[in-house]
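The instructor's notes for this session suggest beginning with a concrete chain rather than abstract definitions. Hand out the sequence below and ask the class to guess, before any prediction is shown, which regions might be ordered.
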Amino acid sequence: MRNLSALSADVRQYLVVTANYWAFTLTDGALRMLVVLHFHTLGYSPLQIAALFLFYEIFGVVTNLVGGYLGARIGLNRTMNLGLGIQVAALLMLTVPAAMLTVPWVMGAQALSGIAKDLNKMSAKSSIKLLVADGEQGTLYRWVAILTGSKNALKGVGFFLGGGLLGLLGFTGAVLTMAAALAMVWLASLLLLKKDLGKASSKPKFRDMLSKSRPINVLSAARLCLFGARDVWFVIALPVYLSSVFGWNFWLVGGFLAAWVIGYGAVQSVAPALTRRRNGDVPDGRSAAVWAFVLAGLPAVIALTLGAGWQPQIALLGGLMLFGVLFAINSSLHSYLIVSYAKADGVSLDIGFYYMSNALGRLLGTVLSGWVYQAYGLPACLWVSSALVLLAALISVALPQRDQLTQRPA
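After discussion, reveal the predicted structure:
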């Protein structure tokens, strides 16, 4: 407690934001797994399950754009608390009797959850820019990597938690338990978050939501393709494949996806050590392009191996573990570059725009995951993934190199 009180007010506020983000991430990961597995057992097709998440991703796109504007005007503490409250409401919507859990109702609950999740992400990622001096790019990279990696590790725990709670408490009991726990976090946050982190010095105009920076626009386009490449197999196709083809139960499916995301988060946390140049410089746009090219061929190799029928469990699970390592490095590089490129005054505007593109990529991947898997199977999802990563690599070639990295976007 003495060490905590010795920290500056800004750092203490940031730690509260981070703790909120972690708590939210647990419920978000668990809810995703609950919905996929529960509705798969009810006989929903992969495309129908993908439709349940359609509003989650669509409203995430809108929220990142508008949320960045709100964060700059009213402060990141208020957007954080708003996100927590909305997530509690979304969870409670799913505790209604089973007869009321229709597709439109679940899609509505997922829409609220998508809004809540991106308000939280934007608030946490924007806050970190305010704590590091412009010249300390190495420190900035480490802080971003730790925040992002720890969040994704907790999301993996959430996947395991979702599968476990579904088996122990059933769908309604699991969702109600999560709603009660998050409500307590929300109440604590209302008391502890008092400082208007991230509030712009002048009131931004609505048109300022769209980025005027070329590096941010290029990075956002690459991010869209990168996350579409992940979710085209990860969101729907993989858990359904593991359950229906490999015959895994809820615990195994949730446990594997949890291990994948936890490992992915751990690699993100140490990405600065893996990607730092020999001369000690932080990575730049060229680094993002190189690492994307390295990743691009892997999903295609996995698809070819599955098509040849060689040890499908070893080929798929081992290949996707390697994909997780390389994808984590790519994602961590992107997360550092956007915070580095963003302007400090009204930082949430630039970061909100970038994560709007991230949400568009997830939306694209989610829809393709259900449709491509239902029509053509998992190998086709992996081929699409490879094509999207290649496109992200080609786009990343246009990113600034190191000597331009510290320049402010226009």
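Then share the key points. The longest helix spans residues 137-192. Confidence is low (pLDDT under 50) at residues 405-410.
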